[in-house]
Amino acid sequence: MPSLSRRASVAGAVSTLLVCSLVSTAGASPGGERPDSTGRPTDGVLVRQSFDSLADRLQPRAEDPGIEPGTVGFTHEPPEGWSVETPGAMAGGGIEEWRGWSFTTREFWNDAEDQMRYRFGRAHDVIAVADSDEFADGGDVPETFASTLSSEPVDVRGRREVLLTFDSHYRGWEGQSATVTVSFDGGEETELVRYDSSTVTDDYDGAAMNANEEVVVDVPAGARDATFRWHFESGANSWYWAIDSVAVREAEGAPQGTPTSAWVVSDIQGDPDDLGHALEDLAAVRPAASGLLMVGDIVDTGSAAQWQEIDDVMSGAEGLLPEQVAAAIGNHESYTGEPWTVLRDRFLDFAGRDEVWGEYLLTGEGGVDVPVLVLGQEEARPPEVPMSEAQLDWLDRRLDHWSRQRTQVLVISHFPLGDTASASWIPWYHDHYEFNDRITRMLGEHPNAVILNGHTHYPLELGDWAVQRRTDGGHPDGFWAVNTGAVQVEWDARGESTDGISEVVTRDINRGLTVDVYRDRMVVTGRDFGPVDGATPTNDVNDVVREVTIPNPYVHSAQRRG
């Protein structure tokens, strides 16, 4: 299956028992303007292409029978410096909108037909699409669909390696293939990425949908420029490939120094045995961690007895636990039918705070400070996450503050924001927050922000486990959102159409994260601890599922190498 990161060589070819130090934020935000949030290449970007510059060139629907006449949303004209090659055999045949690589919007594309197209939740504004299925809805369809999208030449002089990243949404079929290649100075192409029946499960592969690709590319000595190409080829009426947010960056070397580390768990939901086991495994892999982040649904319904069970687990692990525990409230904290204030106060007693929101500062042996901002619902639902203006204003000020410090900041909140990490494209997850769009825009101005959410219990193996989410008017790098997995059971989605999506419990799991923050980057690792029960009180599982490295956008890569 496609991985979150690749390397291509091309040179030749909180518990009440613990003391938690909350950061006092009253009047703590220093004066001055917020850092530049829109144009500056804060992270060593050589070339960035979002396709959004084509928005004014989009044309009305031409032929697609699924799209209402007059609906605007496609063009075949690529961005300046880019090109599209499509064989002459496709000229005049099929549906005009999808004749080779097209530039469109997620909404226009989905209007043609859903079929999992809408799952490309990380897409922003204009995207590039090669769709043999929709193309085949017209007459005179050739036996083969083939098209190539080529980048502008990227200046790579004096560099030993670069990092290619792009968002990718691929649905495969027998005989279909998609590749990314690079050529230097107009020379021979070298393959970097391949999707076909040998690398992707045909028809549906969750790891290839709503995903991100990272490829470290070695630059041959003396090379001046590099051109990247996205090739898509299939038989008639196969599936599709969409990409967005292409960037070529300076590659970073190995991390330097000692990180500040944190453990992350969520969705325990009445499984204290699994929680105790997870804490033991986390202590085994990060014994010097500075914090434990508990991202909601710590108990199943919010009863006093359930909180006592969690307190017992925390007390039993007291010798293992980090100094600080930061807890976020989830929906399962308030399901007993008792008054909201009673249930909220039980959570606050556990968290050691006076509010459902707050700030912590983790500092490790290497001296790296990691601020943690905790968000949460303040009233009884609905909506699922009602929030006060005081909390929103506090969040805005603290994000501004930590951007001025050029420090990466963790935000923990039980629920996902819409179109971020796993399953948040599904309607009933999409708008849980009373101020979903406002919070998303706020985070989008801060490329140093990383939000961790639980709630969905979706597999860490999915392509949208970790999402770089961009916003209108925000920083071009947006912010990162990461799914925490779950200590309890795992869920997944079923269905072709978003309107008809259902969810199923797939298996018993016990999963969480470790976060390691260096001066110049954050490394988030998804981990599997394996569930335990009375018959199997322990196991040998303590595995890495996957990992993502999130650069500190305010530390230039040249400084990283130094």
TrEMBL record:
Enzyme class: hydrolase
Keywords: Hydrolase, Signal
Gene Ontology terms, MF aspect: hydrolase activity
InterPro entries per UniProt: Metallo-depent_PP-like, STPP_CPPED1
Signal peptide: 1-28
EC number, as in UniProt: 3.1.-.-
Domain of life: Bacteria
Annotated segments matching region Disordered: 25-44, 60-81
Designated name of the protein: Metallophosphoesterase family protein
